[in-house]
Amino acid sequence: xxxxxxxxxxxKRLRYLFNGHVETIFAAKLRDAPLVEYERECVQMEDGGxxxxxxxxxxxxxxLPADAPVLILLPGLTGGSHDAYxxxxxxxxxxxxxRAVVFNSRGTSxxxxxxxxxxxxxxxxxxxxxxxxxxxxxxxxxLLAAGWSLxxxxxxxxxxxxxxxxxxxxxxSMCNPFNLVVADQNFHVGFNRIYDHNLANSLRAIYAxxxxxxxxxxxxxxxxxxxxxxxxxxFDDALTRCSFGWPSVDAYYAGxxxxxxxPHVKIPLLCIQAADDPIxxxxxxxxxxxxxxxxxxxxxxxxxGHLGWCSGPxxxxxxxxxxxxxxxxLTSVQPEYAK
Length: 339
Fold this sequence. Notes:
Elements: H1 20-30, E1 38-44, E2 50-56, E3 70-74, H2 84-95, E4 99-104, H3 125-137, E5 143-148, H4 150-162, E6 168-174, H5 180-187, H6 192-210, H7 223-228, H8 232-243, H9 249-256, E7 269-274, H10 287-292, E8 296-301, H11 321-332
Parallel strand pairs: 3-4, 3-5, 5-6, 6-7, 7-8
Antiparallel strand pairs: 1-2, 2-4
Family: Belongs to the AB hydrolase superfamily. AB hydrolase 4 family.
Organism: [Myrmecia] bisecta
GO molecular function: monoacylglycerol lipase activity; short-chain carboxylesterase activity
């Protein structure tokens, strides 16, 4: 904590971003997206699926040594390396001498889909293969990870499954829905239906590009429902839970919640949540489980929305407040990298 001054200070929202909805939408629509040039590598997974790994192409003045720490980034549902919040984190990492690698899940950020399976809140196989690949590519580097929203849920599940066997030394979870049953119920209340509808639109658009891969599949697949889904729940019921063998969408949500994984995390993990997050509500946060695990630290800001946190040093249109907190925490595990 002595090396993480940002999370010791109270987060104060800007006066005109007066609630979580306003801050969420403001960040999504108006936040600056810094220019980042990536080098993309499409990697085939063991089951024939493909993920895209984007690594920043730095200028000679910004180039990092081969053994620089590597930060694996997991964006949120339908998000990817193109998103402003991801680009800002890539830049923040570089400023601390950390190389960022963005893990784009199947079909996101224009990554190819080569098998009749996307990704899910519970599936950690792709993450495991990406970590293995990054470890092989940078054998002398400190490995770190950070995820947002659904990416945070996947990251925490992976850490819980791997325990002390993971090569990742420290990680950060942001805007994690944690309890997917509660998060799903929350989507169907008031203005939250707008987020549900917009995210379903994004899922439907990804599916439309690859619908031919799902034609004629046996089982309980509902391709017509996936093609016209109006909610995340409908998409998950039509496709996701079938792809990963869940008997029902409710069983999928209950069994995929990363709150179940917190007791098994064995590396330093910082969880950052906003109390007014409309998509990952405070009621999902597993306070007791985090408190009982000495490897975990929870920071709940009174405001910030979902993927917002616009009151940072570059307020209101620049980097999220969380960027500084993340790099401070991750470098604190190896003080020689801390500024």
